[in-house]
Amino acid sequence: MAQIYSRIMATGSALPERVLTNADLEKFVDTSDEWIHSRTGIRQRHVAAEGETTGDFATLAAQRALDAAGVKPSELDLIILGTTTPDIIFPSTACLVQHRLGANGCAAFDVNAACSGFVYALGIADKFIRSGQSKKVLVIGAETLTRMVDWTERETCVLFGDGAGAVVLEASDEPGIYATCLHADGGHKELLYNPVGVSVGFKDEPNHGVRIRMSGREVFKVAVKTLDSLVEETLAAAGMEASQLDWLIPHQANLRIIEATAKRLNMPMDQVIVTVDKHANTSSGSVPLALDSAVRSGKVKRGQNLLLEAFGGGFTWASALLRY
Ligand code: COA
């Protein structure tokens, strides 16, 4: 029997209209554009307006991807949405988006793998397609991470933003996705987490204690080391050499982490898609936002080999090597 691959038909993305620059932040936190940019590469981030939700951006990104693919929502077999900031506790944001698209009836679920959510969702979708279970799958990464940001805490509030990206996958005889690698190590929970929730309970604090706790320097070190071995593992899984890659499309958390991974792969920065300057860290939204911007700007072309990777709270880390 011929091998089934999953192939990206098209991409889409959506961002909140409101842009908050580093200069805007300087007005209410003790920080500077120079500090933020030199350490992270970030110049600005998009921030959801009051009332705008993860599902709003996810739906818009999905509609754009479906339009570009020429696929009707009713043709979808499955929707997987990576998020750590769902609209409500349940139903899942994937279900809310499914109904808004008019794709009612297909399987739909969320994946919470923090910043690796989209790449995890892509890996799962690939398995559904390879097994013959699904033919057309919508994969979304969407977040309103600024809902978890404490705007008085300069160590974290400068780093994050909101947005969503999506891809439509289809079953194909031709690659497609060559390999995906998914990992987690819950032993690092304390380095990056949000300590409240339904089961543990909430706190008598501003925003009910919902805020990101992060040991930035430690996260940085583990991320660089982990991504180094992840990219090696992914190349081996696909049976490829780094020289065969056309583009690195990394998680957009910090330009210095991105540069370290590119160096490991011996790839010049002009083969790396960078959007962290404009979007900051949008968690699950980051990789599909970067991918869509690269596709729509004409940088990424059909037939090129792309390495997608992400790292986030958990820790989780994940990658996909694919021919676009
Ligand atoms: N503006 C100005 N100064 C700031 C600041 C800000 N926004 N945030 C922290 N500082 C100060 C600190 O208080 C500290 O001051 P001190 O030396 O007087 O104590 C100083 O800057 C250095 O802080 P440090 O944490 O050592 O800086 P760093 O070079 O490690 O950079 C991060 C901090 C957060 C940018 C960096 O560690 C990082 O990007 N880590 C990874 C985070 C990440 O990507 N998380 C998501 C993963 S998915």
Write the layout of secondary structure elements.
Elements: E1 5-14, E2 19-21, H1 22-26, H2 33-40, E3 44-46, H3 54-69, E4 78-82, H4 93-101, E5 107-111, H5 117-130, E6 136-144, H6 154-157, E7 162-172, E8 177-184, E9 192-193, E10 213-214, H7 216-238, E11 247-250, H8 255-264, H9 276-279, H10 286-296, E12 305-312, E13 316-323
Parallel strand pairs: 4-5, 4-6, 11-12
Antiparallel strand pairs: 1-7, 2-3, 6-7, 8-13, 9-10, 12-13
Helix pairs in contact: 3-4, 7-8
What is the number of independent domains?
Answer: 2
Task: List each distinct ligand once.
Answer: coenzyme A
> If strands are numbered along the chain, what order do they take across the biggest sheet?
1-7-6-4-5
Shape: globular
Distance between the termini: 24 Å
Mean pLDDT: 98
Secondary structure tally: strands: 13
Task: List low-pLDDT spans.
Answer: none
CATH superfamily of the largest domain: Thiolase/Chalcone synthase
Hey, roughly how much beta strand do the residues contain?
15-25%
- Main beta sheet strand tally, sense and closure: 5 strands, mixed
CATH class of the largest domain: Alpha Beta
Rg, alpha carbons: 18 Å
CATH fold label of the largest domain: Peroxisomal Thiolase, Chain A, domain 1
Helix content: 25-40%
* Contiguous helical run count: 10
Task: Give the structural class.
Answer: alpha/beta
| Proper CATH architecture of the largest domain | 3-Layer(aba) Sandwich
From N to C, what is the helix and strand string?
A: EEHHEHEHEHEHEEEEHEHHHEE
